[in-house]
Each structure stands twice: as structure tokens, then as C-alpha cells.
Records
---
Amino acid sequence: MHGAPLPPDAPDPRDWLLYRGYGALLAASGVVTALVSYQVSELSALPAAADEIAAMVEQVRADPRVDSERVVLWFFSGGGLFAADWLRVPPPWLRGIALTYPLLIPFPGWEVDARFLPVEALSAGTGVPLLELLGAG
């Protein structure tokens, strides 16, 4: 999941070289990849986007090329806020969560629902395997 919020005029993250490169690298290793793209320009849109993301993950899992019982979710930057739901109550098919420069608490001044506090979900100790991948730079 790419970062959020994005400016309304931002290009579709599916076209960003960063995600195309990661996807190509994983696909070359035999891993099915999908970039779940969503629109969030205001923090108030986080709940609707989280529900949309969950529905898109189910669409990917339903693809016959996907082993629906062995899924890893990868969150980038502000998209890290969406990891909280998956950390708090991981479905049995979730094999891991990867985080790259994740936002685990909102920036000062950001008002978000407690649902989007991954740092609190982490403290619950759900036992989902985690991998933190640091970005270059």
C-alpha cells in the first residue's frame, strides 16, 4: 500500500518507478504482486480507504494465480497507518507484514481515528511476522 495522503493531482502510484521496480523484482522471483491503489487526499477519508483496501486485497486473493492462504502485505510511508487493522486482527491467511519507512503514528496535528494507530496495534502483540525494509536515501 502506497503512502497517504497524496495531493489530489498526484500521478497514480501504480505508474511510479519505485513500485514498478519492486513489482518487477518480486515477479522475477516468482511472487505474484499487486499494487493496491486508493485515493486519500484528506485524513477523513482514511476509514473509507481502509475498507476499499480490504476489498481490493480480497480481489487479489481471489485471483487463481494467487495462493490465497499465503499473503504478505507491504506498507509504505503514510500507508503504514493502514497496517493497524491487519496488525490488530490478522486474518489466518496473512503470513507477514512488510513496512518501508512506515508512518506508525500520525504526524503532529493530524487527527486520525484510533483505528489508524499501528504503534498501538503493535503493542498488542498479535504475532504477525514483521519485516521492516528501509528505503534508500
---
Amino acid sequence: MIRRLAFPWAALLALAACGKADPPPGFETPPSPALFEVSAPGGAVEGWMFGTIHSLPDGVDWETEALEGVLSRADLLVVEVRDLDDASGLRKAFADRAYTADQPPLAEKVPDAIRGDLLAVLAEHDIIADRFGDMETWAAALTLAQYAETGEAANGVDRTLLARIPREKTVELEGAARQLDVFDRLPEAEQRDLLAAVIANMTRQDQDPMRHAADWYAGRIEHLADPATSAILADAELREALYAGRNRRWADRLVALLGREPRPLVAVGSAHLAGEDGLPALLAARGYTVRRIQ
């Protein structure tokens, strides 16, 4: 599903408050989310990268001593989207791009072979097909993906980090508008491939709804960039547009940030830290030493 690519849009319409609770099954052991140290060719530590997740169940205690140590040393927090607490602004950014009149029904936007899967997903999550009205296909895909969330957006790791760091010390890699523009610029054929991939991932996730969050908690991130486990990344055009291409643009910007005096903590969705197209690999190819420390 979409959160495997670390987009926070699945939580746009349901920002709930969280309370303290006992750890859910699968989260009782000590946490070890992915944390990397980035050093310049000369050996000096220039910054860090931390893999986030945009929603978690109540009761998950994920903060670690290693992360606390990095937070005490970092001068900047670098995130995908900075204004996650501006719910009205996020909704407006979405609404400004998401609607075009006279859209065909959602069922007509998927191949005949998976129309039954779409109907099953809608029934499983009590979704009325009319919910998608005049939504463009990419917007319908992101809206559908929100129903697969197994946690609360208020428990999101990026949201927690943003609450701890002053705004003037926070930098965003994309921002809400530019992130949504990535989807809005997809050709219609690729938007329909995205919708089909979301349906496939939701169908797969129903078999083990907590797997992604549990893997994130334990630091098991390599499968996130594996086409065998993500229908989105198995599509070459979607992989380039939504993952590999974005990572290369981010890497270029991070090289500029790392070359300055302030040392950043780069906190992005954990999928962006995995695989040969992930940020650690891209920075290593640019001469940095990237070492996993958690």
C-alpha cells in the first residue's frame, strides 16, 4: 500500500488523538528502527538518516537511546513534508489537485481481472463507491489506501519528531504541494496502474495487517524496496516516478545540506532508506560512508 512509499496522505482525513496503552502484539521487544550515520570522505560525521513511519497503533514505544543521542547532536531536522499539523492546508493541497468533472466510475478504472478484488476491498472496509465521485485516479488510489492504515496518524514518527524540533530548525525535502504534484503529473495509464497496485497491496496486507509496522519497529526495511513485496515498486514506471526519481532528487539536495556546517537528521519514510535506489546507497555512490547504527 501507499505508506510503503512513505507518503503521509493516507492519514489526511483522519487525524485522531492517541492515548497511552499497552504494547500491541509484535511490539513487546526493544525497538530498533533504522538509523544511519553519514560521514564525509575524510571521516567526519556530517549527519544522520532515520526511517520513519506515518502511523502506528497506540502503545508502541519506539524511541531509543541511539536516536536520542542523534537528536541531541543534530542541528537540523529534514523531513518530506513539514506542515503535517496543518490539516486544513493539507486537505486544501489535496482538493486543489484531486478533482476533475465527469470521471468514470472507479470500477471502470481497473482491469476486469481485478474488479472483484476492488469490490472485495470496498466491502471489507465498508467503503461506498460513490465516495470517489469526481476524484482523479491517483487521488482515488491514495484515498483508498488510507483505509488500510492499521494505526493512528497522531502516533506517526515524523509527527512526533516535528513536535520536538523548532520550525526554524526544520527543512522539508518536498512539501505537500510538490509531493502531490508527483502523483498529479502521472499519465492516466500510470494512475490506473497505481490504483491497481494499491488494490493488490491492500489484498495482500489483509492477510497480515500489522506486518509493515512490526517490520519498521524491528528495523527490517529491505523488503520495502523489493518489487516482490510491493505491487507499486514492481511497476517500472511507478518505481521511477514515486521512488527512484524522488530519491535521486533528494540525494542531490542532501549532498548540498551535508556540505554545510549544520548537521542534519534526515527523517523520511523507511522505504527511502532501503535498496540500491535508497538514500544510503545513493549517498555512498557520491563518496559518503553510510553506516547503520541501529
---
Amino acid sequence: MMHKKDNLYLITIMIFAIIIMAVIDSYIQPGYLMKSIFKIFLFLIVPILYSMKNNNLSLAKLFHINSKNQIINSLILGLGVYGIIIGAYFILKNFIDLNNIQNILLDSLKVSKKNFIYVAIYISFINSLLEEFFFRGFVFLNLNKTMTRIKAYGISAFAFAIYHLAILSNWFNPILFMISMLGLFVGGLIFNWLNERNENLYNSWLVHMFANFAINTIGLMIYNII
């Protein structure tokens, strides 16, 4: 059983991982491959190592499917999220500097038209799983055992939004940037809610995956691949 003292270690690991990734995104900018390796270590390996030393924390059950209905419902919700994001893009695209986004992706992550499809596949399936494992599985579902729901929800969703701050800070104008950060926070709350009942990752992972499908569809259009 989780104890309150475990929260301090868990939150410290969370803050440490977010700060390191912010430094990597903002200053080191090693390219997407190396960034992904760092992220796998911080968001997957470190939590696993910590869980091996802390008997109060279990991560294996995060991958246990409790009901087929949860998968079906999440797929339906994911399709809805896909449609909302694509619709929002067409409504707001005249306010987005698409060339700036391409330049940022090339300069900071070495992502271009040539390798975008490979990056998109990784983002959709692997990166979404890493983030759900870390922010929902490792952080939220464990904090939710020893904290009030409001605190557990707030800490995880806020961390999820702040993690993306360094990534998105130069992408949009200030208004769209704030809307994006608010959307990430609300999205984090929704992901927490999806996972809370079944205490596994599949609900939020599927929805997150479809959100990334939408973002990558927009990327394919930006690069004139489709």
C-alpha cells in the first residue's frame, strides 16, 4: 500500500524528469532520436527502477484489461477527439504560422518532410504510451491512492501541461499558446478520469493516440505529404 511519504519521492522524480526534458528541448536540442532515448529513460526506465525498490508501488497492473467495453468506449471517444482537433485546425489555421512550426521542428528536433512519417508513427504509438505510463500510470494512479482526488488530478494534469511548455513555447502566438496549455491541462484531467475507474492505461492511451493521429494528420498536410 502506498504511503504519504512515497508521494514525496514520486513527485520529486516527476519534477526531475520534467526539468531534464525541458533543458533537452530548450537548450541541448539533440534531435528527435536522442530526445526519445532520454525520454524513454526518464519516463519509463526510472519509474520501473523506482517501483522495483518500492514494494508499495506496482506498475504491472497498468496493462491489465478489465473490460472490452472500456476499449470500445475509448475508441469512440478517440474518434471524437480526432474530429475536434482536425476541425479546430481548419478553423484556426489562418492564425498559425505553419512555416515557423516547420523551421522549429527542423532546427530543434531535426524533423523534416523526409523523416516526418517515421516520427509520426513513433509519436502516435510509442510516445503517447510513454506519456500515459508516466503521467497517468506512475504519477496519477499512485498519488490518487494517498491524496485527495482534487490534488492527484491537479498535480498530474498540471505536470502534463507544463511538460509541453518548452516544446510549444515558440510554436504559436501568445493567445493560441495559452489555449494550447489550457487544452493540455483539461486533456490531462480527462485522461485521469478515463483511467481512474479501471486503473489501467488503455483508456487514456487510446484517446491520446487518436489525438496524436490528428496532430500528425495536420503535420502531413503542413508538409504537403497528403
---
Amino acid sequence: MPVVRTFDSGQASFGRYQRALDDYLAMVTRWYREAGFAARFSMAALSPLPTLAVLLWLGAWLIWRDSLAFDHWLAVLLIGTGMAESMMPMIMLNHMVDKVKLSKVNLSVARIQQVMAIPAPSLPAPGQGQVPADASVRFDGVGFRYAEADAYALRDVSFSVPPGSVTALVGPSGAGKSTVARLIPRFWDVTAGRILVGGVDVRALQLLVETGTSAPA
């Protein structure tokens, strides 16, 4: 998510993902629609009652024509209905597994759509963006907390990073190192103080446009 937000407006990456979801949903829906008739027909044809009716009628007709012995007809009647009845649980199990798979797919798609329907938080954009003079970074009395009720993750942080230099943020887990790094590209706005990039407050920088082209550096 940070990579997509930093280098992309989100439309290209999430657009490809949405198209892949739509294609997968269309494929699954088409497959179930095409296989639905075959599944229903096989369940109806192999149901014990239709099988018994067919064997009774056919056996009676063959016995009447003296083409089938009664004991043979009785054996076929028992074996045929038993075979059909034994195959039904397997067909029902396969159908149930397919329905479970489809329900899981629908549930996953619904959850993904719920997440993607959440409106993205927007930060106020400057009317006329400014261009930084260089790649220097300066924190000037920065304080930050994620929500008004939360404790400060950063408090009165000040330091300067000259352009072309390497600066290490050192501290224990939870000290705010990642927060400092994420405040520079303005994932959030600072609660107090200001962050300057090239002498320009990050809240006044010229933003990326929707086409993915960036402002001149």
C-alpha cells in the first residue's frame, strides 16, 4: 500500500486488480451456468425413483415378451436401484463442495468490494503548489498523533538532513522511526510543527496529478 500510494495514484494498480476480480467472477459464473443443467439432469436421471420406474417398466415388458427371466430381472432391479442410490451421495457431495466454493468466492468478492468501497481519506491540497529547491529535509518542532484521543507518537522533533547525505533514525521499537519516514511523503499531516522539503512545507508542495506524471523536481 505505501508503494502504490507513493508511486501511483491508485487508479492503475487497483484498476488492474479490479479487472482481474471481474474476469474471475465472470469465469466462475459462466462455468456454473454451463454446468448447472448437466448437474441437475444427472441428479434427476440417477435418482432411485426414476431408475426404479424405468427398470420396472423395461423388465415387465421383457418378461411379457419372454426375453428375460424373472430372477434376472429381479437381480437387475436390485443392482440398478442400489447403484443409483449409492452414486447419489457422491453427486450430492460434489455439488455441495462446488456450492461451498462458489459461496466462498462470493464472500471473498463481497469483502473485497466492501474494502474498496471505503472512501479514501484525503488531505487538503494546496491551491498553487510550490516546487522544492533541493532534496533537503527539515523537521521543525514536529508533533504527531494518529487520532485526537491518542497519545503523541512524536513530540517536538527537530532535525535537518542536507541534500545528498545519509541519515539514520535509531531507536527502540515504537519510538516513531516509521512515523517520521511516512510523514515526509505526507501519508498524514503533522499535528504540530512543520516538515520542509527543499525549503517548502510538504503541505504546500505541488502534488502528483491523476495521470501519474509528477511535478518537476
